[in-house]
Specification:
Blueprint: E1 3-7, H1 11-23, E2 27-31, H2 34-43, E3 48-52, H3 60-69, E4 76-80, H4 83-91, E5 98-101, H5 106-119, E6 130-133, E7 136-139, E8 144-146, H6 156-167, E9 172-174, H7 175-183, H8 191-205, E10 215-218, E11 222-225
Parallel strand pairs: 1-2, 1-3, 3-4, 4-5
Antiparallel strand pairs: 6-7, 7-8, 9-11, 10-11
Bound molecules: calcium ion (CA).
Length: about 230
């Protein structure tokens, strides 16, 4: 179950979405203009925001930009109605996680929502504290790590990468997912950046970094973590 904020001024669309998501087990709040949407999003913890572009008082673009400027990391799916709006979502650094074009099928929207929520498992209540990966015992709460013999320094990004991989252990995680999750929208890293970080992490957790047993490379896609 996720807490989802729907910011949509068309009453029929908003209540249709509400019914759909509630049927799927989610907890839904609705804002019918941009300003209210922004205020609700800043005041409450949602797992996801579905944000229409054309809204009274404040456009979805502005709501999205202001949320990110305020440090909100809540995933956002934008609802766009025209080609120009899609181009803007793609072209501007709005910080939206995905967009969907009206008219859309309920099935498609639910699939997008599921995909976005999956990228943010910490939003769905999983609470990661201390884990063991390879030779390292990692304390995600206090950002500490140690091997059997010594404390080991990991950078903030290395912790974030390991946390994300661990939350998806035994699954293949793509480089793009890692980029979106760990680097977000602050800079433009390349998939090469991810590989460099993984190489550094391997030196710390693998017995033999050249033959990794815990962070495997999945050729052409990304990585898979095994405990
Ligand atoms: Ca609208």
């Amino acid at each position: 179950m996720a807490a989802i904020l729907i910011v949509e001024d068309e009453a029929e669309m908003a209540s249709g979405l509400k019914d759909t998501f509630e049927f799927d087990g989610h907890d839904i709040s609705i804002a019918n203009n941009g300003q209210t949407g922004l205020e609700m999003a800043l005041a409450n913890a949602y797992n996801l925001i579905i944000l229409d572009v054309m809204l009274p008082e404040k456009s979805g673009f502005d709501v999205c930009k202001e949320l990110r400027k305020n440090g909100s990391k809540t995933p956002i799916i934008m609802l766009t109605a025209s080609k120009q709006e899609i181009d803007k979502v793609r072209g501007l650094e709005l910080g939206a996680d995905d967009y969907i074009t009206k008219p859309f099928s309920v099935r498609e929207l639910l699939a997008r929502v599921k995909a976005v929520l999956r990228r943010y498992p910490e939003n769905s209540g999983s609470d990661l504290k201390s884990v063991k990966i390879g030779q390292l015992e990692i304390d995600f709460e206090h950002y500490k790590a140690k091997s059997e013999t010594a404390n080991v320094d990991l950078s903030y990004k290395e912790y974030e990468i390991l946390k994300f991989l661990y939350q998806h252990k035994n699954e293949v995680v793509s480089r793009d997912d890692l980029l979106n999750k760990v680097w977000g929208y602050e800079i433009y890293p390349t998939s090469r950046t991810v590989d460099n970080f993984i190489a550094k992490i391997r030196k710390k957790i693998e017995k033999d970094p050249a033959n990794p047993e815990h962070i495997l490379t999945i050729y052409g896609i990304g990585y898979k973590l095994l405990e």
